[in-house]
Amino acid sequence: MLDQLAYLNSQFGPAAVPQILFIAILLYLVLGLIQGTQADILLRGVLFLFIVLNLVGRVFQLTLIIWVLENALPGIILVIAIIFAPELRRLLERLGRTGGYIAHPFGQADTPTVERLVDDVTRAAGDLSRRSWGALMVLERKSGLEEIVETGTRLNATISPALLLTIFYPNSELHDLAVIIRSNSVLAAGCVLPMSEATDRDQHLGSRHRAGLGISEQSDAITVIVSEETGGISMAVDGKLARHLTEDQLRRRLRALFRTRATGRRTFREGLPAWLRRN
Questions:
Q1: pLDDT by residue (tens digit) across 38-74?
Q2: Alpha carbons 134 and 225: distance in angstroms, whole number
Q3: Do 216 and 223 form a contact (C-beta atoms < 8 A)?
Q4: Under a CB-based contact definition with an 8 Å cutoff, are residues 274 and 222 in contact?
Q5: Terminal CA-CA length for the chain
Q6: Within 13 Å of residue 145, how many CA atoms lie on the same side as its CB?
Q7: Looking at domain 111-261, does it have CATH number 3.40.1700.10?
Q8: Nearest alpha carbon to residue 88 among 37, 135, 132
Q9: Residues 108, 261: contact at Cβ < 8 Å?
């Protein structure tokens, strides 16, 4: 043990500082991605078990345990990759989207198109809320949702509040599931969404809210949810759920997320994905 500490001390120098900072930042971002998911609990368990076994093996000089910890690392990494596959996929997807933002940090959005989309979705959500009609609207952004579209009925219809009200009318065949919206088109209705991987703290949520959270965990889509029980309006993005929104609050949040201004330009900070803009 003393020899190992002496070796580490001899290797530590000015060049090691940026490497340590890089690893610390990387770990912080990864932990931030899995916070509030099942992987959060699993990772704590794996780290706790590893630390305990390492301490016990070193203190009591248990050769077999030390050998397993030192030589079974590739297998452990493989097991971790299998257990955390959804989180690793989400991490790579977000890194890919970040690359797109960095490549065009000051890009312009099609302001009239986005304004119409935001206005139609907001007006529909307000009308649905006042009538206490349940709704689940998924607004596609950079991540493609074709595999979700294939689970429902293709419409390829121009978006309007009247169309959305018709789809979510309680006696409609498609009202229980989700609609997928791209730009000014309702691509499909009656679509099945993946359920959220959130931990036990979200068990009180209904299936509509869990589905809205689920698609936001696996893509950068924005989900607008209207509760059938209370008429409350919620919005899910990046695996986070904002509840009890007013119509005006929903409109302002959607505009901010689509990064539109009167000029259609974005600041560099607004160009970053939401998971990097969190304080």
A1: 566 667 777 777 788 888 887 887 787 777 777 776 7
A2: 8
A3: yes
A4: no
A5: 40
A6: 35
A7: yes
A8: 37
A9: no
Residue spans in the chain of domains classed CATH 3.40.1700.10 = 111-261
Ranges of residues in the chain with a pLDDT under 70 are 1-13, 30, 32-42, 73, 80, 83-110, 197-203, 260-279
For the question of whether the overall pTM of this predicted structure is more than 0.70, the answer is no
Helices (H), the chain: 2-11, 16-34, 38-59, 63-71, 73-83, 85-103, 111-131, 146-149, 161-167, 207-218, 247-257, 268-271, 274-277
Question: Given this model, what pLDDT does residue 275 score?
Answer: 43
The widest CA-to-CA distance across the chain, in whole angstroms, is 74
Count other C-beta atoms under 10 Å from residue 32's C-beta: 12
pLDDT in tens, 232-274: 999 999 888 999 999 999 999 999 998 744 334 444 444 444 4
What Cα–Cα distance (Å) separates residue 78 from each residue in 49, 72, 82, 95?
17, 10, 6, 21
Tokens representing 176? Answer: 């229980």
If we measure between CA atoms, which residue out of 279, 243, 275 comes closest to residue 94?
Answer: 275
Q: Are 137 and 250 in contact (CB under 8 A)?
A: no
Q: SS3 for 240?
A: strand
